[in-house]
């Protein structure tokens, strides 16, 4: 077994190059959370600077071994393909393979948003996280989500305008974090830890109904309610 000094010398003094494949995969997963690719929407950008940061994708250029391992980790690509520039979308989407998708829409161009919405609505069974914070989005998420078995879904952050006439049924047994705007809901087989309900009105029509909803969430740890309706809770 090589001593640390010998191992360090054989890897050019870089301890990361001495890590085995499993340790590197753990490191890449960590970097996937710490430094995801993203558009620089809230940063001052000098003329000539890039408007998109590649984040952890830069690691694919360290050496051939790192690139091989990263290209064989579809879960990483499934988290980011929806946010990649149009020129890289198809390539990163293909790298996601059959991994569960993480989809986030935030002020996307209309053509791109419609492409992502169509993808989400037709393949919701493959979506692990869905976040829609685009104020221009008018998609019918009620039809997409109502009474549909979605075992992969863990995170949901979504709004609906106009608000539906009745509660939707969410059959998401692994849903942990849920934020709903203008979308009152009932939860089937709930595992929720965090629930945020906002809108006008974001809550069910009566206090008893609201209490019934909360009683049905035995694992709930965090609750945030923001009721903007002028109607009294009676």
Question: Can you describe what's shown?
Answer:
The protein has 234 residues and is of the alpha/beta class. It has two domains: 17-75, no CATH class; 100-234. 32% of the residues lie in helices and 20% in strands. The chain contains eight helices and eleven strands. Strands 3-4-6-8-10-11 form a six-stranded parallel sheet. A three-stranded parallel sheet has the order 5-7-9. The chain has a two-stranded antiparallel ribbon with strand order 1-2. α6 (110-122) links the parallel β3 (101-105) and β4. α4 runs antiparallel to α5. The longest helix has 14 residues, at 21-34. The chain is globular, with a radius of gyration of 22 Å.
Short description:
Helices cover 32% and strands 20% of the residues. The chain is an alpha/beta fold.
- Radius of gyration (Å): 22 Å
Arithmetic mean of pLDDT:
81
Continuous helix count: 8
Q: Summarize the helix and strand pattern as letters.
A: HHEEHHHEHEHEEEEEEHE
Distance between the termini: 74 Å
Helix/strand/pairing class, anyone? alpha/beta
The proportion of residues in beta strands is: 15-25%
Helix content range of the residues, please? 25-40%
């Amino acid at each position: 077994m090589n001593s640390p000094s010998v191992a360090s010398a054989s890897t050019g003094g870089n301890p990361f190059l001495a890590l085995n494949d499993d340790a590197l995969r753990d490191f890449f997963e960590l970097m996937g959370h710490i430094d995801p690719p993203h558009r620089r929407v809230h940063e001052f950008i000098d003329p000539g600077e890039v408007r998109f940061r590649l984040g952890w994708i830069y690691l694919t250029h360290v050496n051939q071994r790192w690139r091989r391992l990263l290209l064989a980790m579809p879960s990483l690509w499934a988290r980011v393909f929806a946010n990649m520039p149009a020129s890289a979308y198809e390539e990163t989407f293909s790298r996601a393979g059959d991994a569960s998708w993480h989809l986030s829409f935030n002020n996307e161009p209309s053509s791109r948003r419609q492409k992502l919405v169509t993808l989400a609505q037709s393949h919701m069974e493959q979506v692990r996280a869905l976040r829609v914070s685009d104020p221009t989005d008018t998609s019918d998420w009620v039809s997409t989500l109502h009474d549909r078995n979605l075992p992969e879904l863990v995170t949901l952050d979504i709004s609906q305008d106009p608000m539906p006439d009745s509660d939707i049924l969410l059959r998401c047994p692994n849903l942990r974090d849920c934020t709903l705007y203008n979308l009152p809901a009932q939860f089937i087989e709930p595992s929720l830890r965090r629930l945020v309900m906002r809108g006008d009105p974001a809550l069910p029509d009566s206090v008893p109904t609201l209490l019934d909803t909360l009683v049905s969430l035995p694992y709930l740890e965090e609750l945030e309610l923001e009721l903007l309706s002028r109607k009294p809770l009676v």
